[in-house]
Amino acid sequence: MTQTTVNPVYMGRMQQRFIQNYYARHDALEVLFEAKAYRDALAILSDVHGSAESLGLTTLGQAAALVRDFLTTELNTAEPSDRMMHTALNAYLDVSMEFCNPTERFLATA
Question: For the whole prediction, is pTM greater than 0.85?
Answer without folding.
Answer: no
